[in-house]
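Ops channel
N.P.: pipeline sanity check, posting one input/output pair.
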């Protein structure tokens, strides 16, 4: 659930999702992300980065049920403990407890809902949450981060494949084709990779909008970035390397793959 954050929360049409908390791993090299998305504030302001280094906070976030609940709040918007219980196959006592724990560390908060009486509605809190780089994580923190990342990656892939499967059929609309993804390679220094990461976050923030600025027909779009260095035995670019043909299908990991066009779909 920690994902890149730092964007404004946009208005979604009825039935569409709103952005949830995002934690980005960053300075990106070696840190990894955990499980939400870059989100900002409703007024469009970009939040200041916050590093999540307290082991208690990371453990609270790495609890599988809480990851599921944050995923649901991110994709479907505010919900009650009863709504979450039905969606995730839990009892309301369990969801209420997990919501309180998430609220304790600032990942969710109460919000106005469409309910009646004493119903309590919860939303994921946006922010720019980052994890400490891998080099500054001790052994216990690394174990927690590995579990957190594993849960996040698995949930992201499952949701992507599920929504892609459900997008076709007789009732397909223009959003049926809205599943772009890219696989490519670059040759960068560590400093350049950090700059690339920050530019990526800045690009996301350019598209953040307040409720009043969101045009009709807009939907929440979930974004994920995964970048990592190739194995240490991979070839390194040298001055004698010959350029490859533009657009040639060069398999990832080969000497010339930095010059080929990025595969997109």
């Amino acid at each position: 659930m920690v994902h890149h954050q730092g964007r404004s929360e946009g208005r979604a049409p009825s039935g569409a999702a709103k952005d949830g908390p995002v934690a980005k791993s960053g300075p990106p090299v070696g840190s990894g992300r955990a499980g939400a998305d870059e989100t900002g504030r409703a007024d469009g302001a970009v939040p200041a980065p916050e590093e999540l280094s307290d082991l208690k906070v990371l453990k609270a976030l790495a609890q599988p049920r809480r990851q599921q609940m944050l995923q649901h709040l991110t994709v479907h918007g505010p919900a009650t403990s009863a709504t979450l219980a039905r969606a995730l196959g839990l009892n309301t006592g369990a969801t209420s407890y997990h919501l309180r724990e998430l609220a304790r560390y600032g990942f969710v908060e109460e919000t106005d809902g469409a309910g009646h009486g004493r119903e309590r509605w919860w939303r994921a809190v946006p922010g720019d949450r980052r994890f400490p780089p891998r080099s500054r994580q001790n052994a216990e923190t690394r174990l927690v981060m590995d579990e957190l990342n594993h849960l996040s990656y698995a949930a992201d892939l499952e949701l992507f494949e599920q929504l892609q499967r459900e997008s076709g059929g007789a009732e397909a609309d223009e959003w049926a084709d809205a599943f772009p993804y890219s696989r490519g390679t670059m040759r960068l220094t560590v400093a350049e990779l950090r700059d690339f990461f920050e530019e990526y976050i800045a690009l996301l923030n350019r598209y953040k909008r307040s409720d009043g600025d969101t045009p009709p027909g807009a939907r929440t779009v979930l974004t994920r970035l995964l970048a990592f260095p190739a194995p240490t035995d991979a070839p390194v670019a040298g001055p004698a390397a010959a350029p490859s043909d533009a657009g040639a299908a060069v398999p990832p990991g080969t000497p010339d793959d930095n010059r080929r066009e990025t595969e997109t779909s």
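N.P.: looks fine end to end. The helical segments are 55-61, 64-76, 81-88, 92-104, 139-166, 190-206.
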